[in-house]
Amino acid sequence: MAEAITYERRRPEATTLYEVVQDNLETLYGAVDDGALKLALPPFVRKELEGYLDCGLLCRGFARLRCDGCAETRLVAFACKGRGFCPSCLGRKMSATAANLVDYVIPKVPLRQWVLTVPFAWRSRLGFDGALLGAVVRKLADAVLAFYRRRLVEEDGIKGQSGAVLVVQRTSSDLRLNPHVHAVFLDGVHHEDEGGEVKFHALPRLETEDVGCVLEDAARRITRYLRRRGLFDDADDTEAEALAAPEDDEARALAELAANAAAGITPPAGPAWKRGALPPLTHERDFDRHLSVGRGGFTLHAATRAGAMDARGREALLKYVLRPPIAQERVVQGSDGLVRVALKKRFSDGTFAVDLDPLSLLTRLCASVPPPRFHTVGYVGVLASASKLRPRILPEPPKEAGVALDANEEAEPRPRRCRYRPWAELMMRTFEVDVLCCPRCSGRLRLVALMTETKEIRRYLHALGEPTEAAARSPARGPPYWSSRALRRRAGDVDAA
């Protein structure tokens, strides 16, 4: 019998990822400010890094829960609400968004995931140009929607429309910059019959040749759009060649950060020590595998599907496409001053982990932060807010009551639209842990205070013996800035030999 999961307050300050940011942030700032690293760290990136250092610390504020039966107290630290790489905040967003999509947005029909990656030479420009990346995402959606519409007309003579949730992921598993699209499509079309009833017609089959046709259509749409924008330097450029560099100085500096994080070969975002040969970055291979195709630097994968009645599989698929770029347990201390990032899945050459200098890892984290005002989740087709069919295909919301934070209050019924999901509800749904159950008397914990005033926070934590201040950041190292002896030797530091 599996052992029951018990709740323990997370302590981010005890993780390797937190230590890397804390020990190297001032060094990164110093190296950028004195020109040693010709990169740009815009305010939104600095805000993300500094917010992460405050996430989950009691000394930065917390909620206090108490049991009326035995006076047991539980403290829950505030979060940074980051949108770049914070594993906790993005994990919460992943669970809440997936739950809302399953309960309120996506009808009970089969789902299929389409994953598009773009040529390597484009990744640095798409990494910082949010408007351009959004246009590429829309072109993929148009190509897949056209395929569904055309195929159902050919098969059954049905004129309908599909829909999708589009999610932009910014990194590969080794944290190199790799903007790519995970699109979860309704695997068929909705059609309004002569009687006015909306029905769903599933795609009867999907072949690898179909995926190839969709990829060619998407690549043609994307390349044509980029040419109209004048983003190729010469008229003879092919779609696999680099896009024109931006003219603005700040944008150029951002492009340098993105290009370095995409390649991951040279400092500051590299090198990465890997088991096996480093996969070539400029050689694009064409291939055909089952429901997976590569053409001219583009790849499209459509083999993952969740059935209409597979509730757990549908939610797991949505969580996968919404996942954070890094899990904190995958970052551990390595040898020779390096940090090891374990890969969730081995590379084709057998690599299961990459070793990086801490400053290189921090640079890759900077590139993972999306630009301001860029939405990483979007909706198209019948799931778009402007669609006339959307209100008619939404699923019936769950009938069970919501979660009440106060044991003396009754939980309100769930509304018909997406809503804020309390922390306690997400913990129960994701881990089946009732965090409001008192560990001593099995009573109910209720919210009694939100501690936000610095003076009160310090007084309360001092009485509990908890730290009243966050640990200071490590001072900036001098040139050559690197922490690992390997890179310091490469930079000419004789003391590191």
Structural summary, described in words:
It is a single chain. By secondary structure, the chain is an alpha+beta fold. The chain has a domain of 228 residues. The protein is built from 13 helices and 16 strands. A 7-stranded antiparallel sheet has the order 9-10-11-3-5-4-15. Strands 8-14-13-12 form a 4-stranded antiparallel sheet. A 3-stranded antiparallel sheet has the order 2-1-16. A hairpin with a 5-residue loop joins strand 4 and strand 5. Helix 3 crosses helix 8, helix 5 crosses helix 6 and helix 7 crosses helix 9. The longest helix is centred in the first third of the chain and has 27 residues. It is globular, with a radius of gyration of 25 Å. The N and C termini lie far apart (54 Å).
Task: Offer a concise description of the structure.
With 497 residues, the protein is α+β, with helices and mostly antiparallel strands.
Globular, elongated, flat, extended or rod-shaped: what is the shape? Answer: globular
Point out poorly predicted stretches: 401-405
Number of strands: 16
Mean pLDDT: 88
Could you give a short account of the major beta sheet?
7 strands, antiparallel
Number of helices: 13
Instruction: Please estimate the helix content.
Output: 25-40%
- Rounded to the nearest angstrom, the distance between the terminal CA atoms is 54 Å
**Strands of the largest sheet, in order across it?**
9-10-11-3-5-4-15
Order of helices and strands: HHEEHEHHEEEEHHEEEEHEEEHEHHEHH
% residues in beta strands: 15-25%
